[in-house]
Design a protein that fits this description.
This protein is of the alpha/beta class. The chain is built from 20 helices and 9 strands.
């Protein structure tokens, strides 16, 4: 085994092909109380495996003859710990497959024919690997699209192998690997590219976004009229973001496409928000097709002189402004109700119930013990008052018991008792009870 194949004649090379040494070796490995020994069956399982009695080590016979990694060709494998797993990984390596092709073709054809055949087999194996790589990349893209469609987070707090929850992206890939062998083999054998790093995730998201944007761009070129919708809100990280939507008709169907979220934390003025919108209109080259713009009723967005809608309309005169219908109806109902004193007090009292119980975990727990909870407060949504009134109406007695408990139980502080006493007097007020009991379910529009 000390000589290389290049130093032998062609006849000697052919003779060596069938003389793989397969002696019994005295290799052992102790694991806990179990003693594992070398097995002759490994020579049959791996037809390239060879042994040396003098060195008491295992080698790759093909690597010894055709050159390869020192571990398998010169140094040898001195122990059998994890040998099967190591051998499986070795036999699918690119270098081993290339040498194996040359080894099998040795003696079957003339040298020039062998070289040509080896190249053909190398190309076949290369194409097979390309197909596998494409299937793996397809699965990665499928996972990205699934998480995007379901609006799920990609990453976990820790994504190492010891983590109990590596994030949705990695966990879904692990689930697929249990059923699909080519994914499982990819994760077990590939140490260069696995497709799970943060950079790869970002690259895949960017690629998917690029494809979607190209599809949207084709639709925008076909359609004749486009309306834009924008709204700004603050997310959980206290970052102000503005969403932008294009709305148009395609094949007699209304299509709405979310263009993206834009960070407007540094400049939330009308000039700053309109600059973002104008940049996107210019980027997509649809300014002349815009015939409508829709926002909420804040002065920054809807102002007649210096609002976003005014700035946009000065540049694109056909882009008429339409107030958001949902906000419009809510505000009409809210301001109309506030002009009536009794109704105004009734709405204020509804809000007071939620404020009283939500600002104390002890009071919230008391309310949960009664078997219900009050809806979250939202003064800009008329249907909040509808749901709050119906909840209080349905659970009037349970709510009254909870408030009475705060008043009568000595374990509550003076502020809680004082506020609860005022709420209890409201609940005993005939006018409030009459308005509450006559309240009907608010129908959505």
């Amino acid at each position: 085994m000390s000589q290389r194949l290049g130093s032998f004649s062609y006849e000697e090379k052919c003779n060596l092909k069938g003389k793989r040494p397969t002696p019994h070796l005295s290799l052992e490995y102790k694991e806990a109380k179990t003693l594992r020994k070398f097995q002759l069956s490994w020579y049959s399982k791996f037809n390239w495996l060879a042994g040396s009695v003098e060195r008491n080590k295992l080698f790759c016979y093909i690597y010894v003859l055709f050159r390869g990694e020192n571990e398998w060709s010169i140094n040898g494998i001195p122990n059998i710990k994890n040998l099967v797993r190591k051998a499986k990984k070795h036999q699918i390596s690119k270098k081993n497959l290339t040498n194996k092709e040359s080894f099998h073709m040795l003696g079957k054809n003339r040298i020039e024919h062998s070289i040509s055949e080896s190249r053909r087999l190398t190309a076949i194996n290369h194409n097979k690997q390309v197909d596998i790589n494409r299937k793996i990349l397809t699965r990665l893209i499928d996972v990205v699209c699934f998480l995007g469609k379901q609006e799920l987070a990609f990453r976990g707090h820790r994504e190492n192998e010891g983590s109990l929850n590596k994030g949705n992206y990695c966990e879904i890939l692990d689930l697929l690997a249990k059923e699909e062998q080519f994914i499982r083999e990819h994760f077990c054998t590939n140490s260069v590219f696995k497709g799970t790093s943060h950079d790869i995730q970002n690259d895949l998201i960017h690629c998917v976004t690029t494809v979607l944007n190209s599809h949207i761009l084709k639709e925008l070129k076909i359609t004749n009229f486009i309306s834009i919708q924008a709204d700004e809100t603050t997310d959980v990280s206290c970052q102000s973001q503005m969403s932008l939507i294009f709305r148009y008709i395609l094949d007699n169907k209304i299509e709405e496409r979310l263009i993206g979220f834009f960070d407007v934390s540094k400049n939330k003025t009308a000039a700053g928000l309109s600059e973002v919108i104008l940049n996107e209109l210019s980027k997509w080259n649809i300014g002349k097709k815009v015939v409508c713009q829709t926002y909420d009723g804040t002065s920054v967005m809807a102002g007649e002189k210096n609002g976003v809608q005014s700035i946009i309309q000065n540049i694109y005169p056909m882009a008429i402004f339409i107030h958001c219908y949902a906000h419009q109806l809510n505000l009409v109902l809210l301001h109309g109700a506030k002009s009536i004193k009794d109704v105004k007090l009734f709405i204020a009292n509804l809000t007071m119930f939620h404020t009283f119980f939500s600002r104390s975990s002890k009071r919230s727990s008391l309310l949960r013990e009664q078997g219900f909870k009050l809806p979250n407060q939202c003064n800009t949504r008329w249907n909040y008052h509808s749901r709050a009134a119906l909840t209080i109406k349905t659970h009037f007695n349970e709510l009254k018991n909870a408030v009475s408990h705060v008043v009568d139980d000595p374990g509550w502080n003076s502020n809680s008792v004082c506020t609860a006493s005022g709420i209890l007097s409201i609940m005993n007020n005939r006018k409030f009870v009459y308005l509450l009991m006559s309240f009907k379910k608010y129908k959505k529009y």
